[in-house]
Amino acid sequence: MQTDLVAALDIGGTKIAGALVDRDGGLVVRAQRPTPARESGERVMDAVGGVLADLAASPYWGGATAVGIGSAGPVDAAAGTVSPVNVPGWRGFPLVERVADATGGLPVTLVGDGVAITAAEHWLGAARGHDNALCMVVSTGVGGGLVLGGALHPGPSGNAGHIGHISVDLDGDLCPCGARGCVERIASGPNIARRALDAGWRPGPDGDATAVGVAAAARAGDPVAVASFERAAQALAAGIAATATLVEIDIAVIGGGVAGAGELLFAPLRTALRRYATLSFVQHLTVVPAVMGNDAGLVGAAAAALATTARPLADPLSR
Amino acid sequence: MQTDLVAALDIGGTKIAGALVDRDGGLVVRAQRPTPARESGERVMDAVGGVLADLAASPYWGGATAVGIGSAGPVDAAAGTVSPVNVPGWRGFPLVERVADATGGLPVTLVGDGVAITAAEHWLGAARGHDNALCMVVSTGVGGGLVLGGALHPGPSGNAGHIGHISVDLDGDLCPCGARGCVERIASGPNIARRALDAGWRPGPDGDATAVGVAAAARAGDPVAVASFERAAQALAAGIAATATLVEIDIAVIGGGVAGAGELLFAPLRTALRRYATLSFVQHLTVVPAVMGNDAGLVGAAAAALATTARPLADPLSR
């Protein structure tokens, strides 16, 4: 029987994933339910309870000593509540208290999903060994998190690193958040597709009108498709450079579906970064793809819980 | 005889100020020389040496146990060198080593000038009691520094908080730093004046064509002058909101000559901040004027030195 496991939850707008995670970041048991995002808050909580019940049915459950939650934001770690934009039934929902009740009083750590993936990349992924890092997900939205001075920086409310909603174009297009010219408004997958369509690009025979379709067209040389990725790269570069200029990071790690476009995104991003990261102390900044994949949210939620309860993470080099 | 004083240096492009600072932030002795900014690096160092010699001539010098330096940036705190943009004779100049030599081997702490004023405002000024704060100077340039989690965040190289050179207008005007649309390129005093002049504003009878003249015209109702301050406020709001969204600050403190325009700047800044600081965890952000005045650089350099040498700052409330 393994002991000192963390029950990890990764709560998003489409699914609620759970796992028992060991001290090496291994997922010992998994569970998953769809998020009933359009239903009442209690129905969403029922789905969380279902995931926890599936984990509790495992023979390993007795080894669980803490719970780590990474949730779609905004979260309020100080209050223990969540208000995910895509889950309208949860507004100030007391998730920490409810999960503690559902697990017989285990200590619960809550962070935003961007902070969770950052914890994972810093523990076992592309940001390992970097004391000052920005980790991002560029997908349907744009999220992120920070490592500063060697430690995760969730901020008082667990939301720090929200790079998707900093404005890099103060007179730009209105973002659903209410501001203008946010990084997400320019660089997310749906915005890459929208911009290409607005400029006259049309999907190929497969009818894929998403950023994946735009990426395929760009690889085939379509200049409108290429330009849409270059614009996304420019906005990401401005945002990453701003972050480095403000807090001195030396690496930016980018995951998510849009990052899956590979050099189509990373090549213009590196070029643009040289234009925006100009001061001497940020010129050495590098940008690399994420490596933790779909489990980053779960592994990172576990890492955040272990960090909060002051138990040192296992050093992957000593395994 | 007072003991445990800090010899503080505030090094800018026009003057080199020095002081012996006591544990309550009081300036016991002062000294000052003009910066021979266009001369050789050794001549600039001679001026620093002159300031230190003036301090050493005081009967209090024997109480000095450390040196704190706040310097125009960029600095490299790890290497102990400075390369101030406005002092071309100093490029990678080993200031920490030279000051240590000149003071008989006292421990020397180096931070950027924005970090120094932040340390001062956090210790004794407008950011006192705030664990997460941005402090700024809006003047000929735009600089800043951060307090995160209750502690000064200089970053590995001592330059963190460089809000003047984050881009808030990615297609905007070219900044001398090489990027486009930097906060400083829009909000600094010279840019407020340039924008007003470009839009047709002309100085009054006193011939003052600086931001001070623009402020006077704005107070008299000149719409072009008002618009130039509003544009500066918009850029500052976008930059401050970006900072809060990235690292979760709850207060921004603004000093410097442009902040001296008072509500002419702060009123549109608060309005614009509501438009850019949209996420729930940054909506409570407040913006206030700095209170430490011209001595902030010296007091902050001393605070940074005391923090580095792990001696607790005196609590102003217990005096």
Automatic annotation (TrEMBL), chains A, B:
SUPFAM superfamilies in alphabetical order: Actin-like ATPase domain
Alphabetized InterPro entries for the sequence: ATPase_NBD, ROK, ROK_cs
PROSITE patterns the record matches: ROK
Record Gene3D superfamilies: 3.30.420.40
Bilayer-crossing regions: none
Family (UniProt): Belongs to the ROK (NagC/XylR) family.
Protein name from the UniProt record: ROK family protein
Organism: Streptomyces drozdowiczii
Domain of life: Bacteria
Highest classification ranks of the organism: Bacteria, Bacillati, Actinomycetota, Actinomycetes, Kitasatosporales
